[in-house]
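User: Quick sanity check before I run a bigger batch. Here is a single chain. Can you write out its predicted 3D structure?
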Amino acid sequence: MWEEYEDKKFAVDHFQKSCMEDIDAMDEARLEIDNRDIVCYRPTSFGEELDFWFEIEFFIENGQIKAVFDVNI
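Assistant: Done. Predicted structure follows.
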């Protein structure tokens, strides 16, 4: 879809921890209070940030770590 619109090839770069950040300063407190954390991951293509990003919520449910992914475009 993006390749047709932009008329160029895209390849999402491999995972880079530097592209991940906490969404707000309350995340650490939320993790301690109810075992939840939300991070934002901004993928890159050839080192340039793409026009979409992921919000990932991690939480513990029934003794298992789970994650919910939201894609923002």
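The mean pLDDT is 81.

User: Great, the batch can go ahead then.
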